[in-house]
Specification:
Order of helices and strands of chain A: HHEEHHHHEEEEHEHEHE
Distance between the termini of chain A: 49 Å
Largest interface: A-B, 39 and 39 residues
Radius of gyration of chain A: 27 Å
Strand content of chain A: 5-15%
Oligomer: heterodimer
Largest sheet of chain B: 8 strands, mixed
Largest sheet of chain A: 7 strands, mixed
Number of helices of chain B: 12
Number of strands of chain A: 9
Distance between the termini of chain B: 98 Å
Number of strands of chain B: 18
């Protein structure tokens, strides 16, 4: 009832502007009134040693010049220049690119989400609503479901600590580099399965090592893009005890790096498994 | 009437078919006329294989030059014709540089922070940006910066500044460094700093090759030649601040000498100087440093070289493991592990003031034995010499147009940061040329103007 009343008054407010808006996006008239501002580069004033000829004393410029804002966007010009060569394949590729951008934006780390829920609950929301399973500390059951079936708290509550995340069924082909940032701040994360996430590569494992390397004990990287560089990132995880990967195959460098890692860390167990075996992460 | 016409046509067809010509027979008179016509149309000039006009000329085809060419072609496609002039296509000056293939996030200037963040993004998506078969071989071992008493507070300030830009660097105390890396001598260190992500070593050669191949595929012309001279035309009607009226001379063409010793004039609209250590001599050809007024300030870029050594110990156990970051010591010494092999590579950034009594290798040995005590027992031998283009004014790169020659852009002097920042720098120069302003990262403070007005831009997190 209160909300409806408020909505009506905000519409009226936009119809008759009664006060000045002090935000950044000033209109061209307000900017012209404010006059020439000193140029700022990264917050500091830039020392100009000469001024354009039109701004010297005694030079005249038309008042209509406040309407001259920007030159035409060069990206639009580039697209127009390629218009005669446009093929159906180009349109398909453009649409596929747009889908990728959408997916990355959907998986981005949102500071607003973390501010509202706290990093553990925010991660819980993120992973559960994208069809992965999460297990909390001191609990035995895995939380799986979507918005309708599972009622997760929508404000910060104490006592939720994420201990294990199973991303095997992550929707839309798997978790991306930007999505892994949601694992930051999870201080009790011990168990992580990135099985069948084909977009996980060196950079992703490096990010995991930096964010969660202190506490992570189990890591499942089956189906990910492994290379010799991944082993450097794994060496930076001091608490890692169990690692599950695919067969390195012909990659000699990767095999050498794996044997060096095994030699250095006698308490780390590396298990090489095929995709045909039933899932190791059988909700231990 | 119609019937007879059809009949003659059929008879002619039959005669022509029975001749069975497999080549198009052109009447000799037609042939002569066509040849003369073509000659007249081209103005009786000899057709040369070398280009005589390009919209943008890039002098120097190394990391920065190829990156600028890539971004120009990426954004403008067929709209800009780009020519890259490189005098040494074997890239002897860039090959096997052990200090080149490192990416770090430890910077204190906002421009450098943005540039290295963008480089990490570019290298992560390199298969999409360049071709599918480029393998950058990223090895994320991290970078550890060590600070003594003097620089500890500066390091803390820099880390809090970096947090504002989203970079999570962790400060390590002496106990933590000793626990994680017990083979380092920490007696004179107060603090260390290590980054959590996107830091490590990559294969810079594959980056260069990928850039060159993609740029050539997009349509840029690579010329194996050397720039000899710039041609300046007096333009008396131009008025410019700092220049006596009527004395302005504009650079329109440059002369380049090709492989077979032909000297060809190349007319351009914009010229980008990305020649690394040779940038000063190229700038001298444009009278920068030798003229008067605005042209009296030379380009302060010098070539510095330093030796890179390898430390190895046959047969005995090395105490460092796979978790060996790229260590940047307080004395300018850097240590890195040589891939999967059990040896270390080290080098030292030379001091600004050379002390004649102590040689560079003595300084290196003393700092090395101090930091890594086991190296006393190991064999240290020089493996190569690294060349960098160093900006002697304030050790930061020069990027932007010259105040007098407004169509001459510089993109040199980045010393050790050149390779890792090359994607961001190339994009910035392309923005200056196409949009006439910086749209993504604002690198105005890297301009040549700071040398004229004497405002040095110093990066305090780099030794």
């Amino acid at each position: 009832m209160m909300a409806q009343n408020l909505k009506h008054s905000s519409i009226l407010r936009t119809l008759c502007i009664t006060s000045r808006n002090y935000s950044e996006y000033k209109s061209i008239y307000e900017r012209d009134e404010a006059g020439r501002q000193p140029r700022k580069v990264h917050g500091k004033e830039y020392p100009e040693w000469r001024r354009p000829w039109s701004q010297r004393d005694g030079e005249w410029t038309s008042k209509l010049s406040i309407f001259v804002e920007k030159s035409p966007s060069m990206n639009v010009l580039n697209a127009m220049q390629n218009l005669p060569n446009l093929t159906f394949q180009d349109l398909k590729e453009w649409w596929a690119e747009m889908r990728v951008i959408q997916e990355i934006q959907n998986q981005k780390y949102l500071p607003e989400r973390v501010v509202a829920l706290g990093s553990n609950l925010a991660a819980l929301h993120f992973f559960v609503y994208r069809q992965s399973a999460v297990r909390l500390k001191d609990k035995k059951e895995w939380l799986v479901g979507d918005v309708v079936t599972l009622k997760l708290p929508d404000t910060y509550r104490d006592g939720y600590f994420v201990e294990a995340i199973d991303c095997s069924n992550f929707h839309h082909n798997g978790i991306r580099y930007e999505g892994l940032q949601n694992l930051s701040g999870l201080n009790y994360l011990k168990w992580l399965s990135l099985r069948n996430n084909k977009y996980v590569d060196v950079w992703c494992i490096d990010r995991i090592a930096g964010q969660n390397g202190e506490t992570l004990e189990f890591l499942n990287l089956m189906g990910c893009k492994l290379c010799a560089g991944c082993i450097y990132a794994l060496a930076r995880m001091p608490a890692l005890k169990f690692l599950v990967i695919n067969d390195p195959g012909d990659n000699i460098e990767l095999q050498a790096a794996l044997s060096m890692l095994e030699e250095e860390r006698p308490d780390l167990l590396i298990s090489i498994q095929d995709d045909t075996e039933t899932d190791v992460d059988n909700k231990l | 009437m119609n019937f007879s016409r059809i009949l003659t046509k059929n008879i002619k067809k039959y005669i022509v078919l029975s001749n069975r010509n497999y080549a198009k027979f052109v009447n000799p008179f037609t042939r002569t006329w066509d040849t003369i016509n073509n000659e007249i149309k081209s103005g009786f000039k000899q057709q040369s294989d070398y280009p005589e006009h390009a919209d943008v000329v890039i002098i120097g085809g190394g990391f920065i030059g190829s990156s600028v060419a890539y971004w120009l072609k990426n954004r403008a496609g067929e709209g800009l014709s780009v020519a890259v002039i490189e005098k040494d296509t074997t890239y002897e000056m860039c090959q096997n540089m052990h200090s080149h293939g490192i990416i770090t996030q430890h910077y204190s200037l906002p421009e450098n922070i943005y540039l290295s963040q963008y480089s990490a993004d570019f290298l992560r998506n390199i298969k999409k940006n360049l071709k599918e078969d480029v393998d950058i071989e990223f090895k994320p071992h991290g970078t550890l910066i060590l600070a003594s008493e003097k620089y500890a507070s500066k390091l803390e300030e820099n880390v809090s500044l970096q947090k504002e830009f989203g970079i999570s660097n962790k400060i390590l105390t002496v106990e933590e460094i000793e626990r994680l890396y017990p083979w380092i001598n920490t007696s004179d260190i107060k603090l260390g700093c290590i980054s959590k992500e996107s830091e490590g070593a990559f294969n810079s050669q594959s980056l260069l090759k990928g850039l060159i191949q993609k740029t050539q595929e997009l349509g840029a012309t690579y010329l194996k030649s050397e720039v000899i001279d710039f041609e300046m035309n007096p333009q008396q009607d131009i008025l410019m601040e700092g220049v006596a009226p009527g004395s302005f001379k504009k650079i329109n063409r440059l002369v380049y000498r090709t492989e077979d010793n032909q000297e060809i004039f190349l007319k351009f609209a914009v010229c980008v100087v990305a020649a690394g250590s040779d940038s000063e001599s190229v700038a001298k050809l444009a009278n920068i440093g030798t003229g008067g007024g605005l042209l009296s300030v030379p380009l302060p870029i010098e070539k510095r070289e330093y030796n890179v050594y390898s430390i190895e110990n046959e047969g005995s156990r090395m105490s460092f493991g796979l978790n060996t970051p790229f260590i940047m010591d307080t004395s300018g010494l850097w240590l890195k592990r040589d891939g999967l092999q059990k040896k270390l590579i080290c080098g030292q950034i030379p001091l600004i003031k050379q002390d004649k009594n102590i040689s560079n290798s003595d300084i290196l040995y003393s700092s090395l034995h101090n930091r890594y005590p086991e190296s006393v027992k190991s064999e240290v031998k020089p493996i190569s010499t690294d060349f960098i283009d160093c900006n002697t004014y304030d050790d930061t790169g020069i990027l932007g147009p010259h105040p007098y020659h407004t169509n001459l852009f510089f993109a040199t002097g980045f010393s050790r940061q050149g390779v890792q920042h090359s994607p961001g720098i190339g994009r910035a120069v392309a923005e200056l040329i196409i949009d006439c302003q910086f749209t993504t990262i604002d690198l105005s403070r890297f301009g040549f103007d700071r040398i004229l007005i004497d405002e040095p831009l110093i990066e305090s997190n780099v030794y």
